[in-house]
Design brief:
mainly alpha; 101 residues
Length: 101
């Protein structure tokens, strides 16, 4: 069952953290910007993204502006489990000193 306690702001923070870590790793700038754009979309959404996920799944998330299949999958998983596997994976791949460069 999705964790509806995740606020839009918290989901957006997770997406921003993913973008920051991707940037620290030198990922494709378009991918980084995609995460930042969706973070903004989520932060400014009128409805609860967690509720939207519960009601319509990943497909409903793809109806949000700027939200493709990959990022919708990340959000759906985060809402479902209360954590982001991608964020945890990226945290493990970036040395702490690289984040401050």
């Amino acid at each position: 069952m999705p964790d509806t306690r995740l606020s839009n702001d918290r989901i957006a923070q997770i997406l921003d953290q993913i973008a920051d870590l991707l940037e620290a790793q030198g990922a494709d700038p378009f991918r980084i910007q995609a995460y930042r754009n969706v973070a903004h979309t989520v932060r400014t959404a009128d409805e609860s993204v967690a509720d939207l996920t519960r009601e319509g799944g990943q497909e409903a998330l793809q109806g949000l502006p700027n939200t493709g299949e990959g990022i919708a999958r990340v959000i759906a998983s985060t809402v479902r489990t209360g954590r982001s596997d991608l964020l945890e994976e990226l945290k493990g791949e970036v040395a702490p000193g690289e984040l401050f460069r």
